[in-house]
Amino acid sequence: MDRLSATFSALADPTRRAILARLALGETSVSELAAPFEMSLPAVSKHLKVLERAGLVARGRAAQWRPARLEAGALKPAHDWLNEYRLLWEQRLDRLDEYLRTLHASDKT
């Protein structure tokens, strides 16, 4: 699976998006990540593995503690891909707005 597909696949799950939101505040442990969810630590670990494979999360090692941290730079390809379509739709909507103004102006005359 290519990196962009892996990113969108990882982001498709609301639990993984919530984990990323928490990691945006700083690195933390799996048990701290699991606290707001009604799921086991192994289930949270599975979500983290999906995020790691997508390059969105990195795991460190400090003695017995394996903190997880957000790799925000991995979101740039997804941002760039979405931005292309945002620009496309902004241009199309601007043209529609111009067309509607023309119609409205011709209705007044």
Structure description:
With 109 residues, the chain is mainly α. The chain has a single domain (3-108), classed as Winged helix-like DNA-binding domain superfamily/Winged helix DNA-binding domain (Arc Repressor Mutant, subunit A, Orthogonal Bundle). The protein has five helices and two strands; from the N terminus they run H-H-H-H-E-E-H. The chain has helices at 3-11, 14-23, 30-34, 41-53, 76-108, and strands at residues 57-59, 68-70. It has a two-stranded antiparallel sheet. A hairpin with an 8-residue loop joins strand 1 and strand 2 (68-70). Helix 1 (3-11) packs antiparallel against helix 4. The radius of gyration is 21 Å and the shape is elongated. The mean pLDDT is 92.
